[in-house]
């Protein structure tokens, strides 16, 4: 699968977006041709396949990658980049044509959902270096690690993602699947007594949900980390304390309008290294992918992955960098 480093590897997840990628790939490929992209397309065959495809292709010379799919596809592409040892991760450029059900990574960078507009963004190749996170977690007694580039959800978020992804794997997906499981899980989930160590400082509480953000969004447009800056070398933590089901329902709008931090049952913190332990194990999702259970350990990897953004966001990042120099 040797490639010219100037050509793009297009990693296509045909099952993403409840099969929408598979249906729309012909249209997407014609648009890539229209905009004179030199590329090779590879198709994933199941969970984790994109990780191996990317690692192998980088070893064969690839330095430019487009993920066609959802947040999970982008997550696997990023993990493939970190898995390989042939090139510095910052020497590899990653862009996205988002066709998932959540589309949360692209929201932070205001990358259009419309295929041709997204491809026009890719063609200009305005890039920034964003942070990545690495999380250690457990499956039964086995310790595992995973990189992520947008947000990790713990507790309630992890349970909703597990149920949503299980339905997707059974072919029961629909655009409202996440919301369905969010509402159903409200009546079964119990908050957890949790100890967090954030950059050496201990924080204790009875928490319903915890978000650890590089980007701002999760859950298909919920702004759970509204102030997150994806290249500042810090995680944004949003800790939602134990609260009644009625309080959750009446305040869910805050997750969409960015006012979640103003609610008195919410704590926010910044940190580079986070450890999480619970009396009763809780579940984890990262970039929408269901992973495992606590205890967890998170570390930030500052400005470690090069991503294509729209020109407006690129200009904002550059102006902010000049102000802080």
Describe the protein.
This protein is an alpha+beta fold and 325 residues long. The protein has two domains: 8-126 and 309-324, Rossmann fold, CATH 3.40.50.10330; 133-301, Tumour Suppressor Smad4 (Sandwich), CATH 2.60.200. The chain is 33% helix and 34% strand. The chain has ten helices and 14 strands. The chain has helices at residues 16-34, 49-59, 71-83, 104-108, 115-124, 156-169, 177-185, 245-251, 253-257, 311-324; strands at 8-12, 39-43, 64-69, 93-98, 127-139, 142-148, 151-155, 192-198, 201-213, 235-241, 266-271, 273-278, 283-286, 289-308. It has a six-stranded antiparallel barrel. Strand 13 (283-286) and strand 14 (289-308) form a beta hairpin. Helix 2 packs across helix 3 and helix 6 crosses helix 7. The longest helix has 19 residues, at 16-34. The chain is globular. The model has no long low-confidence stretch (mean pLDDT 91).
Structure in a nutshell:
The chain is an alpha+beta fold and 325 residues long.
Highlighted features:
325 residues, alpha+beta, Rossmann fold, Tumour Suppressor Smad4, 6-stranded antiparallel beta barrel, 14 strands
How does the SSE layout of this entry go?
Layout: E1 8-12, H1 16-34, E2 39-43, H2 49-59, E3 64-69, H3 71-83, E4 93-98, H4 104-108, H5 115-124, E5 127-139, E6 142-148, E7 151-155, H6 156-169, H7 177-185, E8 192-198, E9 201-213, E10 235-241, H8 245-251, H9 253-257, E11 266-271, E12 273-278, E13 283-286, E14 289-308, H10 311-324
Parallel strand pairs: 1-2, 1-3, 3-4, 4-14
Antiparallel strand pairs: 5-6, 5-14, 7-9, 7-13, 8-9, 8-12, 9-10, 10-11, 12-14, 13-14
